[in-house]
Amino acid sequence: MAENVADLFVHTLRAAGVSRIWGLAGDSLNAFTDAIRRDGGIRWLHMRHEEAAAFAAAAEAEVTGELAVIAGSSGPGNLHFINGLFDAQRSRVPVLAIASHIPSAEIGSGYFQETHPQDLFRECSVYSELVADPAQLPWVLEIAMRTAVEKRGVAVVVVPGDIFFADAPDRRPSAPIRASRPVIVPSLGELARAATMLDGAKKITILAGAGVAGAHAEVLALAEKLQAPIVHAFRGKEHIEYDNPYDVGMTGLLGFASGYRAIAKCDALLILGSDFPYRQFYPDKATIIQVDIRGEQLGRRTPIDMGMVGEVGATAEALLPLLHGDRDGRHLRDSVQHYKKTRRDLDGLANNDGKTPIHPQYVARLLDELADKDAVFTVDVGSPVIWAARYLQMTKERRLIGSFTHGSMANAMPQALGAQVVDRDRQVIALSGDGGLSMLMGDLLSIRQNDLPVKIVVFNNSSLGFIEVEMVAAGIVNFGTDLVNPDFAQVAEAVGITGIRVEHPDDLEPALRRALAEPGPVLVDVVVAGNELSIPPSITAEQAKGFTLWALRSVLSGRGDEILDLADTNVWRRVFG
Predict the structure, then answer these.
(1) Among the options 32, 50, 121, 164, which is catalytic?
(2) Closest CA to 380 of 462, 424, 439
(3) How many CB atoms lie under 10 A from the CB of residue 35?
(4) pTM of structure
């Protein structure tokens, strides 16, 4: 049988090193999935919801650094991708989305399931194009793949179902598509100017983001020369925190007092590969120098005194010999000492005090201690990100994946699937919120169907906990945040996953040890304190006022028991002590 467009699609993907496609079959995608079946060289990973497929593919791309692929049928099928694709796009990972479409002759007629996916996906992609003629296909597909890997984003190829069945055009194949690895360094004049500015400062702090990936040694050498503490943004945590004597923790809403203080007290801030978004945490008067591989990022979050376009490792290496030595190290020593105190205070909140419900900090700390040195952690948006930020310690081999820029619920469990499929023998642990897990709970079935031994730890506080924190800060009585949950361990057992329920802190360590030792998938449902609030590193007068108003309104509305719950979990001591 002559090769059709679907066959050409599959051969091109295989040549680019694609070995898996995440998705959900459908009529307009039939020719494509049949081509996968006949070829036999690409694994079809059947998911129960396309949003979960997109999260999984993005996590695969995050772990491998290579192109990951999803495919979905027309209309509602591929439209379900959109939230996961927004996350992939904003996390800057290369994902190709194959969106099948209604018959080409029906486009524009209001046909069954008609949408315009090339327009719908445009905002969450670096490339989005409709294939209206088979002759377009080789060019459009290769452009899409190359754009995805070079710009590190989402590329969408929309193909009407009938086009898949058409004869493939005759064209000489291109070389396999792989991402290039250019080294970009600022000009010598820019580097010299930056060195002069840094040499004129007495107290320098480095803010490191995801752009420091692969530049651990170079950034540490720069910190040593500048005698600068290193504050990391959440996405920089996995790349710079480990084996780092200059690390002083995070800043931001999830951060520590020490990270906030190191930035507040500096007279020069060197931002390396970070798009940290919260303007209120930047210094008001310090000189700010920013380095980023993308020039459009410079000065986007705070006014800067100098911006340089360059890869962080190469830029740091080129800047190092231009700097004077013999710097005063008091700012660094003071910042590191403050971090040690902050760290002790945080660790003091993560112990087994025998009380129920269990402190979520204790859960995160135990996971950190028991997990493998090369474990992959995926983290739900909400309260799990707080405990991951504060209690998961990174090593050179560990990975930390979440929806840190897009901020979507329900990401951790499907991202764990994407990470696990890359290496079945590597430990993959999802820190899931009860709200996040239940939003895409149907894809627990995908874990068993695809035979992936992920471990899921559910922080079950029967509420949208982080939303409640925001309500408290605004002085609003909690409303609409309660969750009536099942026993998630029993749900897991019902779908063929080992389920463990933990309600007492004494049972937690044995349960986690058992879960991590199991060869197959496990879900641990941990009942944690619902009023365990995290406090930002800097509490504004407005937030303090909001907390007081919340307490008063809660009493007046007959909900004073919530105040007692807070006192019982030591929040009063941390806020006002």
Answers:
(1) 50
(2) 439
(3) 20
(4) 0.91
For residue 242, give the nearest of 230, 251, 260, 254 by alpha carbon: 230
Q: What confidence tens digit (pLDDT) does each residue in 345-395 have?
A: 888 889 998 999 999 999 999 999 999 999 999 999 988 998 999 999 999
pLDDT band at 567 (very low <50, low <70, confident <90, very high): very low
Residues whose CB falls within 8 Å of the CB of residue 480, separated by 6 or more in sequence, listed in order: none
Instruction: Tell me which of 9, 466, 488, 547 is the catalytic residue.
Output: 466
Selected catalytic residue, list 131, 379, 381, 428: 381
| Dihedral pair phi/psi, residue 101, rounded to 5° | -135, 170
Place of tokens 């895409």: 440
**Whose CA is closest to 394, among 250, 238, 233?**
238
What is the per-residue pLDDT for 96?
98
Greater confidence (497 vs 574) lies with: 497
Q: pLDDT (tens digit, 9 = 90+) per residue, 480-531?
A: 888 899 999 999 999 999 999 999 999 999 999 999 999 999 999 999 997 6
Catalytic residue status for 379: no
Q: Is 466 a catalytic residue?
A: yes
- Residue 377 annotated in active site: no
Query: Taking a C-beta distance cutoff of 8 angstroms, is the pair 418, 399 a contact?
Result: no
Q: Which of 113, 118, 449, 543 is catalytic?
A: 113
Catalytic annotation present for 361: no
Length of the chain: 577
CA-nearest of 127, 454, 406 to 277 is 406
Asked if residue 367 lies in contact with residue 361, where contact means CB atoms within 8 angstroms, the answer is no
pLDDT in tens, 86-142: 999 999 999 999 999 999 999 999 999 999 999 999 999 999 999 999 999 889 999
Q: Among the options 112, 183, 479, 490, which is catalytic?
A: 112
User: Between the CA of residue 477 and those of 70, 469, 472, what are the distances in Å?
Assistant: 42, 10, 7
Mean pLDDT of the chain: 91
**CA distances (Å), origin 421, targets 151, 377, 443, 451, 561:** 24, 14, 15, 9, 46
Beta strands 376-379 and 399-402, pairing class: parallel
Half-sphere CA count of 180, side-chain side, radius 13 A: 8
404 is catalytic: no
SS3 labels along 31-99: HHHHHHHHHCCCEEEECCCHHHHHHHHHHHHHHHCCCEEEEECCCHHHHCCHHHHHHHHHHCCCEEEEE
pLDDT of residue 574: 42
Q: Find the mean pLDDT for residues 277-284.
A: 90
Tell me which of 37-51, 405-419, 537-551 is least confident. 537-551
Q: Which structure tokens are listed for 2?
A: 């002559």
Matching residue, tokens 């979520």: 360
Using a CB cutoff of 8 Å and minimum separation of 24, what contacts does 178-182 make? 178/16, 178/17, 178/149, 179/65, 179/66, 179/94, 179/149, 179/150, 179/152, 180/150, 182/311
pLDDT digits (tens, 9 = 90+) for 296-318: 999 999 999 999 999 999 999 99
Single-letter code of the amino acid located at 304: I
Tokens for 355?
């009380």
d(CA 14, CA 8) in angstroms, rounded, equals 10
